Amino acid sequence: MLKSKSYYFVFTLFLITFCITNSNFRVSESQLSKLMRIMANDFKSIKTKVITNEKLPDYQKKYKKIITAKASADSKKGEHYTEYAQLFLIQYDRFYASEKAMQKKEFNSLVSTCIRCHETYCPGPLTMIKKLKISPE
Question: How many domains does the chain have?
Answer without folding.
Answer: 1
